[in-house]
Design a protein that fits this description.
Layout: E1 3-9, H1 19-28, E2 36-42, H2 46-57, E3 63-69, E4 76-79, E5 81-83, E6 106-108, H3 113-122, E7 127-130, H4 137-152, E8 157-163, H5 167-170, H6 182-198
Parallel strand pairs: 1-2, 1-3, 3-8, 4-7
Antiparallel strand pairs: 4-8, 5-6
Length: 203
Amino acid sequence: MTTVLMTAFEPYDRWQANASWLTVVELTSELPSEPKVTTRLYPVDFRAAKTKLQEDLTANYDYALHLGQAPGSSQIRLEAFGLNIGGSGRQRPDEFHPLVADGPAAYQSSLPLARWAGMIRRAGVPAEVSYYAGTYLCNATLYLSHFFAQEMGLKTRSCFIHLPLSTTQAISERTDTPSLPTSMAQLAVRMILNDLASGEIYA
């Protein structure tokens, strides 16, 4: 049976919830029989998330789907590249550091992101392929997922999915804030899971 590691993040900064975990909770209320999905909630902390990710990947899943929220985005973004650089909004770009000393400059997801984006749009959910996952923890998760798989000789193929804020999060905002119902976000992720279970994945 196809196995999938699905990760999401805890709330951070002023957010009382995280769209990624809200999506996982709704999705797992009624999971399909295949693929076999293992879910994990990660802290918004470079060191702790890196440790947990490395530990989880030792199970050698077929795929890893990493979810995160993207405030300001109106579409689901399927991230294609993870860069070997990390920093926070409190730092200047020249204070950022490599995620892995002497590691590759970047990894590209080998999963069919463009096909998935089209599939999701046809279901009425806004989605696109993105070529820049930022320089914070979401990018780090995508990069390190590929790095650990390579270093440990794993079969795991990874991608990162940025989700807009849930409408339940946007309600409390005082400014016009892009959002997407959690039901639509979970539908998109469910479609990807169904595709993974079908065994028709290609690079």
